[in-house]
Amino acid sequence: MSQKDIEIEHQWTFVYNTDRYGKCDTSEMQVYSNSFESNLIPDVKFEITCCVSSSKKYYVILSKTPHTPVNATIAIQSIGSEKIGRMVHVDRWTDNCTLEINIENLRLDVPNDGLFSIFDRYSRSISMRCNITWRAFEKPKFQVFDDLCDYFKKFLTSPDLGDMKIVIGKKEVPVQKIIFLIYSVAFLVTYRVDVTKSVKKRIVVRDIEINIMRKVIEYIYTSAMNPIFDFNALLSILKVADKYEMMELKELCEEKLSQNITIDNVLKIFERASLCGVPKLMETLISFMVEKKFQIVALEDFADLYRRIPKLLFEFFMRSFIIN
């Protein structure tokens, strides 16, 4: 795909109900949902869903398939005299992007038809426009390129070709030094500092289970991760990626965890994320927790987590119970 920016536009009409004073009736709010494509970007399909919350927030959820990362600017704006909208810049957009628009000050006059509805209810509509500026994702300098990964794959199943060993406890995993060291600066430093003549070509790795290290090695050689979501393994892989500065793997873990947050796992993800420097994941977690704040504070492990990392949970309380 060309690196030139591509502009995509989609328009729709959002229908909602109010009383005679313009107050939204969110209990019967119509939800708009539709899909659209652009011949400028073949094989990419967009899904858009819109709804309004009781706090007069207009939510637009935009998703795309396939989930190949791209950089994009997404702008949502009303058409006509009532100007409301929001614009965001999305780096490495893979799946869902949610925009929140404040419609509290939107003018909602009673229709001048001389009659009141028998149910004191009025149907209104807003015409909206979505503009997407699509930029092909440029791979960062730390990413192992696909053509090299194709070449590296054959070494993964050929342990006899290894010229260095990763040592975990009593087990050793043969790897190719050049492949491993160009992928991780931290491993390169470890190799230079810790390797002596008596243990030449061996790097001892602590606090990592052998099965997790094998998954990390598989990713280094193939630039691919098992599509089956394994929550506990992914948290451990994130820890390894952060420790050894494997930035691409770290971002992939961040994306997968962001897409699989539930009430049952949110606190565990929050605790690990707080130690690994993943701001996008932290923002997603806090937003999820704010949305489900009463369920969150009722969790058995919440009080213990708050005692251990009160500073990080401060924003959750501010956004949940003070700001709103």
Automatic annotation (TrEMBL):
<protein>
    <recommendedName>
        <fullName>BTB domain-containing protein</fullName>
    </recommendedName>
</protein>
<feature type="domain" description="BTB">
    <location>
        <begin position="162"/>
        <end position="226"/>
    </location>
</feature>
<dbReference type="InterPro" id="IPR011333">
    <property type="entry name" value="SKP1/BTB/POZ_sf"/>
</dbReference>
<dbReference type="Pfam" id="PF00651">
    <property type="entry name" value="BTB"/>
</dbReference>
<dbReference type="InterPro" id="IPR000210">
    <property type="entry name" value="BTB/POZ_dom"/>
</dbReference>
